[in-house]
Amino acid sequence: MPVFITLEGIDGSGKSLHFRLLVEYLRSKEYDFIATREPGGTPLGERIRELLLDPAYPMTVHSEAFLYAAARSELTLKVIWPALRAGRNVVSDRYVDSSLAYQAFGRGLPPEFVAAINEMGTGGLKPHRTILLDLPVEVAMERKAAGPRDRMEQMDAEFFERVRAGYLELAAAEPRRVKVVDATRPVEVVQAEIRRLVEEIWPRPRRDGSGPGA
To answer: What is the pLDDT of residues 161-202, one digit of tens each?
Structure first.
């Protein structure tokens, strides 16, 4: 049975780097999977991503939540669900937990509202495993200070403290699905733990060499 795995974390946690390293590792093992990202992953989703991350387009928190849900719906219905039904594994850089952490805990929207619009847009699909890279906000902001920052990355420390707390609350509520990884450690140590958590649930090929992950 194929698996759906996601990576999560606040901006500056190293999530994008570790997602890239994980994808390279899985490809080196010749596993059968697709890799995608949020927001994005489809032509429409990539256009929505441009709007969401561009500081030139301020928007209400409700519009922001609906746009993230719309991009996610496109990705789920056109890419993720078809891949899983075809027996392929899926690895994604962010998913619904991002909206719950950022738009509910960070922006202050009711969690029930954020959960409901995403439930409608995705058909209730949940990852089999979510790896949360946890890092103190001050460290994350120091990492992001040197380069250009998009609209979300420009938020202040108090916002990201709420987002981080939200992520940890989500992890505490679903400890079997969400695995917290200490991202303060060296890259190679963090990546080794991520790979271990992925390999724990990655489908193994049957003895004839066929099947998911073959």
So the answer is: 999 999 999 999 999 999 999 999 999 999 999 999 999 999
Amino acid at 212: P
- Residue 135's identity, in one-letter code, is L
Residues 8, 12: Cα–Cα separation, whole Å: 11
* Prediction pTM value: 0.92
Distances (CA, A) of 60 to 47, 52, 57, 110: 18, 11, 10, 14
Domain 4-201 - what CATH class?
Answer: alpha beta
Q: Quick one: pLDDT at residue 143?
A: 84
CA distances from 82 to 2, 76, 149, 209 (A): 12, 8, 34, 23
Domain borders along the chain are 4-201
